[in-house]
Amino acid sequence: LYLDLPLSQFQTSDYREGTGNVPLLEGTFPTTGSATGIPVILKEYNTDKPHELEHVRRELAVYSRVQDRHIVPCLGFLLEDKSCYVVLERFNCDLEEYLQRVCRN
């Protein structure tokens, strides 16, 4: 799943250290479909090193369990072709339905 989320609109609500002291940036993207915005966690990784993506996936799986939240991974390409790993918190609905609802515009 690929989303085009403008990094300039990302509003940081919290900064946490992930496992292995890897920073995770947590915040929201404003959207017309939601008063609070889309909750996201950003994690940068190097696209030239695919093994980094697997490390990030495992890290986020641990983070998800620790936070007791179901986190859905997806990719977003942000700012000058620099890749970030973007995860959306999943609510009680199908992911595609959720995205259609909050990302209509």
From TrEMBL:
Domain Serine-threonine/tyrosine-protein kinase catalytic: start-end pairs: 26-101
Single annotated GO MF: protein kinase activity
Pfam families the record matches: PK_Tyr_Ser-Thr
InterPro entries: Kinase-like_dom_sf (IPR011009), Ser-Thr/Tyr_kinase_cat_dom (IPR001245)
Protein name (database record): Serine-threonine/tyrosine-protein kinase catalytic domain-containing protein
